[in-house]
Write a structure and sequence with these properties.
With 305 residues, the protein is an alpha/beta fold. It has two domains: 5-211, Spore Coat Polysaccharide Biosynthesis Protein SpsA, Chain A; 220-293, no CATH class. The chain is built from nine helices and ten strands. The chain has helices spanning 15-28, 46-53, 68-78, 97-107, 169-175, 187-197, 222-240, 243-270, 276-293; strands at residues 5-11, 34-39, 58-61, 83-87, 111-119, 129-130, 155-156, 159-160, 164-168, 201-211. The strands form two sheets. It has an eight-stranded mixed β-sheet with strand order 3-2-1-4-9-5-10-7, sandwiched between helices. Helix 2 links the parallel strand 2 and strand 3. Helix 1 (15-28) packs across helix 2 (46-53), helix 7 crosses helix 9 (276-293) and helix 8 packs across helix 9 (276-293). The radius of gyration is 20 Å and the shape is globular.
Length: 305
């Protein structure tokens, strides 16, 4: 029997979160589909709990935290589906997602990557897509001038947030899976750009709503996650831009980090540290600047790599 969708949940810690995502995925699946959980060395035994509750669900146990892309790739290599659904463990998928994604894949023969519209758990829209990156879009401050929103109808986009991606196996066989140089952050963006460059369409399907918590995997490691984000951003620049452009981006963005640090530090003092948003931005800039000043130590960033 040919497998239609291989659904992959990348997981690290959080039994209830994983159980909710898995329950929604089971409801969306039928006998033509398979589900694989890839556990990134959870420390809370949540994946083992899932195996007790759902003995038929296949689980791949990693000996260490491989990061998001590398873990997803293990699921891809083990899966037999014609299509893949690659998911975070903090989402809920609608019961029609696999059927609707399949129809769109059949209708659009060059559709390589598809996402539904992400929302929070109250139903509020979360930005899910972006235009193809340009030089200006990567300059902090300047890049925010573009206030375009997600399309309201099925449309081709530049990049997608990767919390729940439908992916055609044929595309993966042609251009490769996630780039494992990214531990966390930007692996989805780079993949979409690679797809576009190889004439595969990246589509947003806004009628399919995908509730997403966001930040649940890194929320308890705020400082470390900011370092990891900036490390991945530099890797991303080097992969998609010529060297002189990377130098220009660093010449703009690193001083911009310092100016932000001065501004948010002053604002934190003025507000006596009571504005949580401003305080977090001040901490963000402080940690990243310190990491850059110390020569980008490899042991900084998300733990348990």
């Amino acid at each position: 029997m040919e497998i239609r969708f291989t659904s992959i949940i990348v997981h690290r810690n959080g039994f209830e979160r994983l159980k909710s995502a898995l329950d929604s995925l089971i409801k969306a699946s039928d006998l033509l589909d398979e589900i694989i959980i890839v556990d990134n060395a959870s420390t809370d035994k949540s994946a083992h709990e899932i195996s007790n509750h759902y003995p038929k669900v296949r689980i791949i146990y990693n000996n260490s935290n491989l990061g998001y892309g590398a873990a997803a790739n293990r699921g891809i290599m083990s899966g037999s589906g014609k299509y893949f659904l690659i998911c975070n463990n903090d989402i809920l998928v609608p019961s029609n997602i696999l059927n609707d994604f399949e129809k769109l894949f059949i209708k659009a023969s060059k559709a390589g990557i598809i996402s539904g519209q992400q929302t929070n758990f109250n139903g509020d829209i979360l930005r899910t897509s972006m235009k193809m990156p340009s030089l200006l879009s990567e300059f902090d401050g300047v890049g925010r001038i573009d206030h375009s929103k997600d399309p309201k109808k099925i449309a081709e986009v530049g990049t997608l947030r990767g919390a729940c991606l439908g992916v055609r196996k044929e595309m993966i066989e042609e251009i490769g899976a996630f780039d494992e140089d990214f531990f966390f952050y930007f692996e989805d963006t780079e993949w979409c750009i690679r797809a576009n460059k190889n004439n595969w369409k990246v589509l947003l399907y806004p009628d399919i709503k995908v509730p997403h918590v966001g930040g649940s995997s890194s929320g308890e490691f705020f400082n470390e996650s900011r370092v990891e984000f900036y490390r991945s951003r530099i890797i991303y620049w080097k992969k998609i831009y010529p060297r002189f452009v990377v130098i220009l981006l660093q010449m703009w963005n690193i001083p911009k980090l310092f100016l932000d640090f001065v501004f948010y530090t002053s604002a934190t003092f003025i507000t006596f540290g009571q504005n949580t948003r401003i305080k977090k931005k001040m901490i963000d800039r402080t940690v990243v600047l310190l990491w850059l000043t110390l020569g980008k130590p490899k042991n900084w960033g998300l733990p348990k790599k």
